[in-house]
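Example record

The entry below shows one chain as it appears in the dataset: sequence first, then structure tokens.
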Amino acid sequence: MKVEDNIAMRGARSPASTPPAPPAHEPQSRSVAQAVLSPLATDMARCLRGEGERFFGVAPGRLDVIGGFAEYTGALTLSIPLQEHACVGVQRRRDGIVSISQASADGRNGGDALEIPISLLRKHDSDWIDAATGRSLAEPAYGDAVCCVLGTLVESLRLNLFSPLAGGVSVVLGSTLDDVAGGGRHAAIASATLVACAGACGEGLEPLNAVAICETVENRWLGFPSGPSDAVSALLSEPNTLSQFRCDSRTLGGSIALPDDIRLIAIDCGTSHPDAAAKYAQVRTASFMGRLLVDRIVQHDGLLNGHWDGFLSRVSVTDFVEHFRDRLPTKLKGKDFLSRFGETGDPLTQVDPDLVYKVRSRTEHHIYEHDRSRKFIEALSRAIRTKDRTSLGDAGDVMYASHWSCGQRCGLGSVEGDTLVSLLRRHGENAGIHGARMSSRGCGGLVAVLADATDPASEAAAAAIDAYSRSTGCRARILNGSMAGAIVQGPIRA
């Protein structure tokens, strides 16, 4: 992995390795002349008119290849970075003001800037404001992207990462991810902000601390119960490379650079259900209800030989079928669960007493999804190592199984997503389409496709998209390209 010396992640390719903290010295950030700068950043630089140096962070969106929302139960997640990205520029000030503005598509200032004296971000006890207070300053007038930047700044200052910013800072942000549902937009904005601030302050970043800040911003400042995988990809990924992250132990696994004859394609299906967030929250709640019940069974029966630590990823498929599946209720009303067990222990969700939760199927998905991630990486690695095309079909079958489980076990499918995956599958392996699944948190958004890097496969994908658009009225598109994560690129000086 090529990483700037100032923000290093040495040993990241070794399975189950935690990157050590890099030295906090002057970053050797790249200049515009030394880097292939985001065209968005080139235009955005005009929005920062102060006298100080300008630093940019550029962070890609994420294609969730498999693992998906099982991240919060500890699963192995597999991701590849997109070319679509967020870009954040910062410039230090001396007047004690935090100014955050958004650039429009042409790089000009896209509206009024949020301007706050940095003293207002402090509480009376000298600590920094909490997320609820911060949201009231940024939303709804300035939107979620500005709130994301503000949250990243405050959480970084809380940890004393960028103390020079206490004199004030101007921030401008832009994104090509705004219309890409499920592409990890918020994590990309937070990641780009961190790297730009690191460049402006001459500080280093410890990679997994940066991931934790991004996750905190999404969870507390934006109110979305996401896991770490979007941030890991936005910060630490390499172009056209499949990266592994074990969410239970928070460790980076090995990465696999895709050979020239294999592609992982991201298709934006052009729609996302408006109630996707509510459905996702219900599935998460039901999964944690199942996790608590599994924990009770483990403690009562003395199962799993001490390997249980609260993550469903620790339960094998065999153990689940033999010891747990038939003891979990298929459905359970919220008030009945609360009266017997109280809350689930997940701080990011609450049990609604009036809802009926499908506990067994939601829990089952997470057990099987972790197993599918392992099978996918084994099959893909075997295909690359041996040139055995049958193994690509095995990896594709795992993707189709994941897609089915997301829709049928968790209720997070969509008519549009099912239509696109079915059309792709119809072309089949003879055309070089090996597998496809609804990506990320379901309910529309991105579809991940495993395909040959050949003209017939490209033609099959284009034909499937054309038939999909005629059938659904939705405009789908392939998101071409892939870029390195923000830490891998390092801060860019402009």
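Notes for this example: The longest helix spans residues 359-386. The chain has a mean pLDDT of 89.
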